[in-house]
């Protein structure tokens, strides 16, 4: 059969298997078999498991074309050497005629240069072994250029359906996709370079990361707006017909995560405003997560700020003035938020944990101003905080790092009350102390900057405060906020006080301790701090 077709040499199944095994099938969607013959190779590709592939073929013989059509293959061209496809082929797999196989392989490489892809081709060994022509030399150069491989298969067609003693080679080449330059980016970059204002994304690592981030923000905004404008300008020239005869665009410009926006608005075109809001959100996120002042906020305050990025900051440009205002707001929130957190912590150590049997000794009662239901925190408190996990299972054990967030908030409050600290507080020090205790299975007397911790399997943590002065400020702050101390506390000496005021002081701390507070009130009484100048 087909004995008159001198270029038709059906590919033996063992060779087809070797060709298929040579290909990396991940992310392969489209396949082309030039000089397909009866479609033996295409049949094998179609039979691959878990693969739904688009397969095109080329074939010039009319009789073979009839067979291919019967198998429902797309015959995209009769003459492969003249075929200039518009679609992208991920794989070209071929057994071209032996007498001009180099031309077929060179053309396959040329096709793949447009978008990248893989090619596997059977050639007569003489094609590469006897590279006498410019075409064969060009093929050898291409194989070397792309790091292709040549596997010598010997007389693999000797026992084939149509036998020949010709020695063959299997050539495999992975042609990379070309690097494409954006004319929008290049034009914009040229404009800014002329103004000496261009900043590439890698410039974020410069000596002034905030300034670099601002420049990158501007670049992204301008590039995105130009892309949207260009898309809208070219879209009228790329239209299809709907079922009712109306013109509809082939493309929609979609931004990741915009599906809900389209469902709500019915719009299939991203707006400039939606894009700008998305970029603002990105840069405000980066700013807050990396800003040193942000790291000093408690977890609740951090959470509040991150929520506001979606509801508030996304409506503000990422500029120096807005960053400065955000930092002032953070500092103000740090002042007010920490005071609120300190008072909440005071209540936790005292009132909130009073239901817990072991915590009843956390507090010392005293007769307060106009009330007898007053208390302060002792030098040791017990709180329900479990440093263990899954003790009922063999894999359970001691893991104090799971308490990091709660303990960090306590230490941040005490850092705020530490009037004499010489080095800035860092949560990393607490984390390191807990990690060391975890590694060494040290459950008792874990010393951190402001606390000494002991964990028990019943789910409690015993906290002993390292600095009596800070604990005193903590109690004074809590008692003042609850109006348990005389209004003139710290401003009127003990001897100047009325008897009822003295009675409160005697019950709370004693005359000697109070006189020390009066001498240095700035060391014991928390005042509204003067906000320092914050520089970009």
How would you describe this protein?
By secondary structure, the chain is an alpha/beta fold. It has helices at residues 13-22, 40-46, 62-70, 101-112, 125-129, 134-145, 183-195, 209-234, 259-265, 272-290, 292-295, 299-311, 320-352, 404-417, 427-440, 468-481, 499-508, 511-519, 521-524, and strands at 30-33, 54-58, 74-77, 91-94, 117-124, 149-154, 168-175, 239-241, 247-249, 363-368, 371-377, 380-384, 388-389, 397-398, 446-447, 451-456, 460-465. It has a 7-stranded mixed β-sheet with strand order 3-2-1-4-5-7-6, with helices on both faces. Helix 3 links the parallel strand 2 and strand 3. Helix 4 (101-112) packs across helix 6 (134-145), helix 8 (209-234) packs antiparallel against helix 10 (272-290) and helix 14 packs across helix 15.
Number of helical stretches of at least 4 residues: 19
Q: Average pLDDT value?
A: 85
Assembly state here?
single chain
Helix content: 40-55%
For the biggest β-sheet, the strand order reads 3-2-1-4-5-7-6
Give the termini distance in whole angstroms: 83 Å
């Amino acid at each position: 059969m087909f004995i008159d077709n001198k270029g038709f040499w059906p590919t033996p199944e063992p060779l087809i298997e070797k060709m298929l095994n040579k290909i990396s099938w991940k992310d392969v969607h489209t396949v082309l078999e030039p000089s397909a013959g009866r479609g033996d190779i295409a049949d094998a590709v179609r039979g691959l498991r878990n693969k739904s592939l688009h397969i095109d073929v080329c074939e010039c013989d009319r009789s073979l074309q009839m067979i291919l059509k019967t198998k429902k293959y797309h015959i995209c061209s009769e003459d492969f050497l003249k075929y200039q496809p518009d679609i992208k082929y991920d794989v070209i797999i071929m057994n071209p005629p032996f007498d001009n196989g180099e031309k077929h392989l060179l053309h396959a490489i040329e096709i793949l240069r447009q978008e990248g892809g893989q090619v596997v081709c059977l050639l007569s060994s003489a094609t590469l072994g006897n590279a006498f022509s410019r075409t064969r030399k060009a093929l050898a150069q291409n194989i070397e250029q792309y790091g292709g491989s040549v596997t010598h298969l010997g007389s693999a067609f000797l026992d084939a359906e149509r036998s020949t003693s010709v020695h063959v080679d299997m050539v495999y080449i992975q042609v990379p996709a070309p690097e494409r330059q954006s004319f929008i980016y290049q034009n914009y970059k040229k404009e800014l370079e002329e103004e000496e204002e261009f900043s590439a994304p890698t410039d974020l690592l410069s000596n002034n990361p905030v300034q670099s981030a601002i420049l990158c923000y501007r670049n992204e905004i301008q590039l995105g707006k130009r892309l949207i404008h260009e898309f809208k300008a070219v879209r009228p020239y790329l239209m299809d017909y709907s079922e009712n005869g109306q013109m509809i665009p082939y493309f929609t410009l979609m931004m990741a995560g915009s599906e809900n926006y389209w469902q709500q608005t019915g719009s299939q075109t991203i707006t400039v405003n939606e894009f700008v809001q998305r970029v603002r959100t990105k840069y405000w996120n980066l700013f807050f997560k990396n800003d040193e002042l942000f790291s000093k906020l408690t977890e609740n305050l951090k959470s509040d700020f991150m929520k506001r990025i979606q509801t508030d900051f996304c409506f503000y440009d990422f500029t120096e003035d807005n960053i400065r205002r955000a930092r002032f707001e953070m500092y103000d929130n740090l002042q007010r938020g920490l005071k609120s957190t300190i008072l909440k912590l005071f209540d936790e150590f005292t009132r909130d944990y009073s239901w817990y049997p072991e915590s009843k000794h956390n507090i010392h009662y005293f007769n307060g101003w106009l009330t007898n239901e007053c208390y302060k925190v002792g030098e040791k408190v017990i709180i329900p905080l479990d440093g263990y996990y899954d003790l009922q299972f063999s894999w359970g054990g001691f893991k104090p790092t799971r308490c990091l967030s709660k303990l960090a908030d306590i230490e941040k409050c005490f850092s705020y009350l530490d009037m004499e600290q010489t080095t800035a507080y860092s949560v990393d020090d607490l984390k390191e102390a807990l990690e060391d205790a975890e590694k060494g299975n040290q459950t008792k007397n874990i010393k951190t900057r402001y606390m000494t911790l002991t964990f028990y399997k019943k789910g409690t943590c015993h906290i002993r405060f390292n600095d009596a002065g800070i604990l005193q400020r903590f109690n004074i702050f809590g008692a003042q906020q609850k109006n348990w101390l005389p209004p003139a506390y710290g401003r009127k000496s003990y001897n100047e006080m009325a008897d009822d005021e003295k009675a409160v002081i005697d019950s709370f701390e004693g005359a000697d301790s109070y006189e020390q507070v009066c001498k240095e009130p700035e060391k014991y009484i928390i005042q509204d701090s003067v906000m320092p100048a914050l520089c970009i």
